[in-house]
Write a structure and sequence with these properties.
This protein is an alpha/beta fold. It folds into 2 domains: 100 residues, 3-Layer(aba) Sandwich (Cobalt-precorrin-4 Transmethylase, domain 1), CATH 3.40.1010.10; 99 residues, Tetrapyrrole methylase, C-terminal domain (Methyltransferase, Cobalt-precorrin-4 Transmethylase, Domain 2, 2-Layer Sandwich), CATH 3.30.950. 27% of the residues lie in helices and 23% in strands. It contains 7 helices and 10 strands. The chain has a 5-stranded parallel β-sheet, sandwiched between helices.
Amino acid sequence: MEGVIHVVGLGPGSRDYLTPAAERVVTQAEVLVGGRRALDLFAGLSAQRVEITGRLDDAITAIRACYRNHRVVVLVSGDPGFYSLLAVLRRHFPPEELEVIPGISSIQLAFARLKLPWDHATLISLHGRELSILQPFLDKFPLAILTDPVHSPSQIGQYLLSQGVTNRQARICQDLSYPSERIIVTDLEGMAAMEAMGNAVVVITDE
């Protein structure tokens, strides 16, 4: 549909977790906007590609230039409404010009892998934020944290220990949905001593 920006959640990474609704919208796109990994998932499509780099303003400008005359689909990892681009798009476009297709977030998959309910979990992303944002939630468990290259699981463990948090189990879920997926179960001391790793989901529990 022209004049509407379709914001599609791709899930945690593997195409196995892409919903049929998401795939249907993506395959009808005339313009695909997303990060390189997201665009590579659909390398076989003939749609024009706009790669999102560190400059979101450039992506917004590109979307604004073509969405009224072309079917534009914005690809985001996980779910669009959870620490994703939806908030940014709402600052630039009215809600009636957005259609959102939900996806499976990496946090959802982490709790599924761990066989834990998450209806009472506290969910935090450290992408572009400081560790101190965890301060109000140090007694809220389970605590699920999206890490980034700057804030590794080891730094999170060190921070929690420095704030007096003890006797907690840590589960580090790395590369969820990919062949390299692994889950490490340890305590805060063990997590604090780990080597740095890329993006992961850290789940802290009191059991």
